[in-house]
Amino acid sequence: MSVERNPEAFENAPINWVPAIVLLSTPLLALVLVPWYLWSHGANPATWTAFAIFMAWTGLSITAGYHRLWSHKAYDAHPVVKYVLLFGATLAVQSSVFDWCSGHRSHHRHVDDEYDDPYSSRRGFWFSHMQWMLRKFPSGQYDYKNIPDLKKDKLLTFQHNHYGLCVVASNAIALTIVGFITGDMLGAFIIVGLLRLVLTHHFTFFINSLCHMFGSRPYTDENTARDNPILAIFTWGEGYHNYHHYFQYDYRNGVKWWQYDPTKWFILGLSKIGLAKDLKRVDGLTIKHAEVIMQFKRAQARIDGGEMSLDERLAAFKERISAEYEAFSQTVEEWHTLKAKSVELKRTEFANRLHEADERLKEQFSLVEAKIREHSERIELAYAHLKGKAATAK
Ligand SMILES: [Zn+2]
Ligand SMILES: [Zn+2]
C-alpha cells in the first residue's frame, strides 16, 4: 500500500471513535478504579496470580502470535497453539489480526516513512506511541493486499469479520470464569481485565515509540529501530528491535544467549514438544557480518567527527581501519563464493557424495567465520588503543 503524500489529509484526519474512546478511557478508569479496589478490598493472592497468568498469556499472544507467527511467518505452529494465541491476542484488544499484521508489514516495508509507515517515528513520540490509532490517518487505512496468506485462513477471517463481538465475548467469558475461580469477581474485572489491558497496550506501544528512539544500533543504522534491553523486559523480548528490523524473519529478536527474549524461548520450547516447526534463523555469519560493518561505520564516524586531536596516531588509525575494511571485504567475498558453491554442489552432487561435500564446505565456512571474528577483534583492539591514546593525550 502506498499513501498519497498529502499533508492536509493527515492534518484533517477524522477521529477514529471506537479506538479513541477505548484507548483514552481505559487508562483513566484504571487510574481511578485500581487504587480504589486495592484500598477497599485489599490484595487477593488468587486475583494477582490470575493477573500474572493473563499478562503472560495475552502478552505472548501478541509477540509470538500476531507478531512473529502471523506478521512475519518466522515459524509454523500447531493448530492448538494458534487457537490459544488467537484467543489471547483477542483478549489483548489490539485490533483484528488482519489490521495488526497488515499495518505491521507496512511498518517494516516503509519504516520511518512519514506517509507510508502507519506508526512512523518521524512524526514524533506521541504519534508513534498511540496517536496513529486515535484518528483515521491515511497511513492507517489498510487494503489488506499485503496479507494474502492470512486471508486464506478461515479462523483469522472469522476473527476479523466479527472482531467487536470476539473482543467483548472473549473478555466477558474469560474474566467471569476467573471471577468464579478466585471468588473475586470485582478483582477479575478491575485487575485481571482492566489493569492487564492497559499495561499490555502500552508495553506493546513502547516498541513503536521508545524502541525507535532510545537504544543502540548494532546491526543497521538505516532506520530508527533500536536494541533496548530494558524495554525487552516489558515486551517479552521485543526490545531488540534493531536486530528485528534488519532480520525480520528470524523467530528470535534477542539473538545472543544472554539477551532476554522469553518469546524466543517460548517458541523454541513449543518446537521441542512438537507444537512448533520451521523456526527461521539467520545464520551466525550473516549476523556477524552486519555487526562488523556497523563497527567499521562507527570507527570511521569517530575519526571523521574530529572529537580527538588530529595527530599522526590518528592518521595511522585511519589507515588501519581502511586496511581492515579491505581485508574484511575480501573475506565477505570469499563467503559469498562459498555460498554460491554450496548451492551449486547441492544441485550437481549425487546424493551419496553430498554428505562428504557438505562436510568440506562446513570446514571452509568455519574458517571464514574465524577470519571474520579476527577482523572484529582487531577493530576492537584498534579502538581500545585509540581510546587509551586519547586519554593519555588529555
Ligand atoms: Zn519497528
Ligand atoms: Zn516486526
TrEMBL record:
Coiled-coil regions listed in the entry: none
Signal peptide bounds: none
Main location, first listed in the record: membrane
CDD domains membership: Delta9-FADS-like
TM regions (residue ranges): 20-39, 46-68, 162-181, 187-207
Source domain of life: Bacteria
GO function terms (MF aspect): oxidoreductase activity, acting on paired donors, with oxidation of a pair of donors resulting in the reduction of molecular oxygen to two molecules of water
A single Gene Ontology CC term: membrane
InterPro entries: Acyl-CoA_DS, FA_desaturase_dom
Membrane topology: Multi-pass membrane protein
GO biological process, one term: fatty acid biosynthetic process
Keyword annotations of the record: Fatty acid biosynthesis, Fatty acid metabolism, Iron, Lipid biosynthesis, Lipid metabolism, Membrane, Oxidoreductase, Transmembrane, Transmembrane helix
The keyword Nucleotidyltransferase appears for this protein: no
Pfam families in UniProt: FA_desaturase
Keyword Membrane found: yes
Localization, UniProt: Membrane
Record domain Fatty acid desaturase: where: 47-264
Family recorded in the similarity comment: Belongs to the fatty acid desaturase type 2 family.
Protein name in UniProt: Fatty acid desaturase
The organism of origin for this protein: Moraxella caviae
